[in-house]
Write a structure and sequence with these properties.
The chain has 283 residues and is an alpha/beta fold. It has 13 helices and nine strands. Helix content is 36%, strand content 18%. Strand 2, helix 3 and strand 3 form a beta-alpha-beta unit.
């Protein structure tokens, strides 16, 4: 059993925490735990987190990344949907008294700004997470659409194929909606790659960590951008004059010409500036 009177120096191994609290990963929650503290510390370093800052962590599980974030001297707000993990994470309250806040809730439904206000946190904060794979892109879009932006950086784990889509340039086979929105609303940068074997249980795919800095000002409406990119990539092998017709109707070619985009181009050939012009066009 986990001993009482824990200190930072005698925290039990994460595998013991998983066993003692019955934290078998739930497939329905997209759980794949990261137990190697060398890796979690690498993520904490990539985040740029400093002592006294506040960081939000989503889906901390048994607390591998949570420990690394707390070691920086930061204040950690951990949002976890799984009540089993909340109980396990509570053991960190002793060794890290006053710097860990646990919230049992669904990350897709929480209002981060309200949480920060409730806990007296002012100013932008960082966010660092080994995201549940099944909601990773939805969460990213949620944070990218936040206005005004409440975060000063995002350091996030994704499936490698999702990370590749986020940073893909025009012309790349993985270039699409997610990358365009990410590259317009933030500055995503590749961190490092992790094989499936680094996780417990190992997923069927490899993973990558990305770091995002916010842009000073988002140059277009993300909601409009979502509509434009949804139409443009709905049939990505078609020319834009055809794929955008459901959105613009008979004026499709006229609008494309007005924003200096050839109607015969395909969506994957248009750079982010082109999509900004489309999103900003007032028909």
């Amino acid at each position: 059993m986990i001993p009482g009177g824990l200190s930072r120096e005698n925290l039990p191994p994460l595998r013991d925490v998983i066993e003692d609290f019955g934290l078998g990963a739930k497939k329905s929650l997209g759980q794949h735990f990261l137990l190697d503290l060398n890796i979690t510390r690498k993520i904490a370093r990539l985040s740029g987190l400093k002592a006294g800052e506040t960081v939000i962590e989503i889906g901390p599980g048994p607390g591998g990344l949570t420990r690394a974030l707390l070691e920086t001297g930061a204040n950690v707000i951990a949002i976890e949907r799984d009540s089993r993990c909340i109980e396990a994470l509570s053991m960190l309250n002793g060794p890290y008294e006053g710097t860990l806040t646990l919230i049992e809730d669904d990350a897709m439904k929480v209002d981060e700004v309200a949480i920060l206000k409730e806990h007296g946190v002012s100013g932008p904060v960082r966010l660092a997470s080994n995201l549940p794979y099944n909601i990773s892109t939805e969460l990213l879009i949620k944070w990218l659409k936040a206005a005004p932006c409440w975060w000063t950086s995002l350091t996030l784990m994704f499936q490698k194929e999702v990370a590749d889509r986020i940073i893909a340039p025009p012309g790349n086979k993985t270039y699409g909606r997610l990358g365009i929105i990410s590259q317009i609303a933030s500055v995503p940068q590749k961190g490092f790659h992790l094989p499936a074997a680094a996780f417990t249980p190992p997923p069927k795919v490899d993973s990558s960590v990305l770091h995002f800095d916010p842009v000073k000002e988002v140059p277009c409406s993300i909601s409009k951008l979502e509509k434009v990119t949804a139409a443009a990539f709905s049939q990505r092998r078609k020319m834009l004059r055809a794929s955008l017709k459901p959105l613009y109707g008979k004026r499709t070619e006229e609008i494309l010409s007005a924003v200096d985009i050839l109607p015969t181009k395909r969506a994957e050939e248009i750079d982010v500036d082109g999509f900004i012009r489309l999103a900003n066009f007032e028909s």
